[in-house]
């Protein structure tokens, strides 16, 4: 009832209404509510970031990295750099679902053909960016907010879990637990704790065991 058209069995339901700066929307059915959802703005104005999901060698074409555009725009002819390996090359073509694209925008899962780079040089977890406009770089260390959900013992400096960051899968060492924080408010509750345990949240300096491309969330 009330999925596609108003139902006579639900006279108590007077409908829904939402007011926003784009205008007022109202209706009685689920389909109208779905139609009234505004698509999110795609971050095309930010620097290009495309984490690689896989790299293929395709006969007659060459090396084809595959991944989803997170921010920015990828076009044929762009000189891309792959971080953290710092390999620079030109994009010859961009395809999605076997169709050539003039540009790929955030949310697009694309394959793109690159010049003079072998499959062995690229791997899952690398991040492609525009070499001329705020290119991605590897991080020597980074500060993270960590919440321990379920861990049998105490976690102290030196603990090295495997981190899944975008498509990268790399062990990172807890170099320094800077402070414990309240999970809800984010306010500091203890500086330089010796250890943290299940249920704790903390600000930690992490050091990747291999080069890792990671950036602050903006």
TrEMBL record:
Domain Translation elongation factor EFTu-like, residue spans: 62-127
Keyword Cytoplasm attached: yes
InterPro entries linked: EFTu-like_2, GTP-eEF1A_C, Transl_B-barrel_sf
CDD domains, alphabetized: EF1_alpha_II, EF1_alpha_III
Residue ranges of domain GTP-eEF1A C-terminal in the record: 142-218
MF-aspect GO terms: GTP binding; translation elongation factor activity
Subcellular location: Cytoplasm
Source superkingdom: Eukaryota
Any one cellular-component term (Gene Ontology): cytoplasm
Family: Belongs to the TRAFAC class translation factor GTPase superfamily. Classic translation factor GTPase family. EF-Tu/EF-1A subfamily.
Function, in words: This protein promotes the GTP-dependent binding of aminoacyl-tRNA to the A-site of ribosomes during protein biosynthesis.
PANTHER family named among the record's database cross-references: ELONGATION FACTOR 1 ALPHA, TR-TYPE G DOMAIN-CONTAINING PROTEIN
Name of the protein in its database record: Elongation factor 1-alpha
Species this protein is from: Catasticta incerta
């Amino acid at each position: 009832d009330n999925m596609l058209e108003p139902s006579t069995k639900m006279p108590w339901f007077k409908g829904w209404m939402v007011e926003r700066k784009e205008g007022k929307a109202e209706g009685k059915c689920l389909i109208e509510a779905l139609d009234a959802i505004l698509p999110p703005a795609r971050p095309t104005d930010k620097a290009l970031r495309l984490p690689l999901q896989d790299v293929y060698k395709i006969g007659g074409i060459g090396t084809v990295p595959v991944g989803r555009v997170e921010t920015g725009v990828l076009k044929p002819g762009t000189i891309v750099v792959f971080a953290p390996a710092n390999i620079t090359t030109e994009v010859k073509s961009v395809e999605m679902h076997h169709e050539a694209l003039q540009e790929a925008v955030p949310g697009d899962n694309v394959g793109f053909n690159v010049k003079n780079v072998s499959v062995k040089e690229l791997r899952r977890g690398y991040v492609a960016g525009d070499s001329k406009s705020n290119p991605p770089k590897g991080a020597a260390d980074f500060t993270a907010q960590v919440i321990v959900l379920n861990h049998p013992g105490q976690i102290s400096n030196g603990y090295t879990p495997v981190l899944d960051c975008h498509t990268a899968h790399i062990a990172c060492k807890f170099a320094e637990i800077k402070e414990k924080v309240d999970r809800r408010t984010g306010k500091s509750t203890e500086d330089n704790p010796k250890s943290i345990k299940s249920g704790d949240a903390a600000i930690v300096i992490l050091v990747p065991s291999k080069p890792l491309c990671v950036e602050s969330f903006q």
